Structure to design on (278 residues):
């Protein structure tokens, strides 16, 4: 039996336990684990019935999942998800709903601008809440110690990797942007060694070529730093350090603000560390 004092009472602790135990969970419990990590707000506010429907399991499976994490029942586990929301001052979803209600008095472009601005603000707030300083320090050390940084970010992530390549170049940091033009991505990455580093960026639905490139680099012993959206991401499990970035959306279009903020942070911090070393 799990000791009461050993049960996580805050969300970071619960999240760490879920990620630790997920690989050994049965299929249905694994589905709940993935849903809980990727949709914490829905778990906090939903009913047992609604959460079961959205995660594709029976309600009884939620109880089994809670007990697998050490709790007596699902309501006890759900309370941890709710606790992470209590300190939030602003409810962005309510703000956007009010904005839509008043759309008749504002131009459509103005409504869209405020919608995207609020989504960007929410994204950055979530990143600030979740970012672990130790991870940031470790990632900067890996990147700064690499002879060459290989940047892998395709499809939606391509603007981020392109920016980092541009900024690294301006800061005299040797890097290679993997752009996959002409189908040469594997060849471009084939020169990477254990003395280098791959910084990979991908979000759901994960770009298959990015996943393949990360797997190939990891198999060669090349250190990986990943920016993604879940501990269950295929590019997280291969990384020495990975960052979780959850971008809010407006009308189905996801912000890139938090991802770009993290990319700028890593770029400048790596340059600063290199300047101190040399």
């Amino acid at each position: 039996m799990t000791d009461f004092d050993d049960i996580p009472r805050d969300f970071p602790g619960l999240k760490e336990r879920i990620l630790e135990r997920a690989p050994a969970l049965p299929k249905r419990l694994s589905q709940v684990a993935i849903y809980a990590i990727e949709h914490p707000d829905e778990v906090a506010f939903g009913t047992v019935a609604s959460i079961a429907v959205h995660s594709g399991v029976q309600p009884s499976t939620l109880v089994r999942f809670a007990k697998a994490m050490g709790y007596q029942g699902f309501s006890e586990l759900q309370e941890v998800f709710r606790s992470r929301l209590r300190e939030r001052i602003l409810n962005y979803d309510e703000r956007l709903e009010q904005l839509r209600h008043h759309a008749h008095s504002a131009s459509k472009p103005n409504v869209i601008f405020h919608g995207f601005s609020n989504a960007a603000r929410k994204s950055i707030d979530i990143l600030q809440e979740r970012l672990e300083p130790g991870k940031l320090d470790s990632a900067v050390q890996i990147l700064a110690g690499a002879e060459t940084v290989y940047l892998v970010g395709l499809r939606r992530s391509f603007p981020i990797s392109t920016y980092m390549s541009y900024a690294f170049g301006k800061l005299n940091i040797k890097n290679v942007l993997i752009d996959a033009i002409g189908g040469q991505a594997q060849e471009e990455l084939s020169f990477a060694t254990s003395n280098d580093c791959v910084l990979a960026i991908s979000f759901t639905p994960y770009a298959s070529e990015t996943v393949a490139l990360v797997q190939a680099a990891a198999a060669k012993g090349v250190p990986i730093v990943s920016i993604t959206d879940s501990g269950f991401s295929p590019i997280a499990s291969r990384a020495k350090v990975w960052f979780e970035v959850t971008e809010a959306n407006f009308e189905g279009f996801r912000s890139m603000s938090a991802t770009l903020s993290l990319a700028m942070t890593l770029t400048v911090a790596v340059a600063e560390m290199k300047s101190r070393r040399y």
The chain has three domains: 4-83, 92-130, 133-277. Strands lie at 149-153, 175-178, 197-201, 224-228, 241-244, 249-250, 253-254.
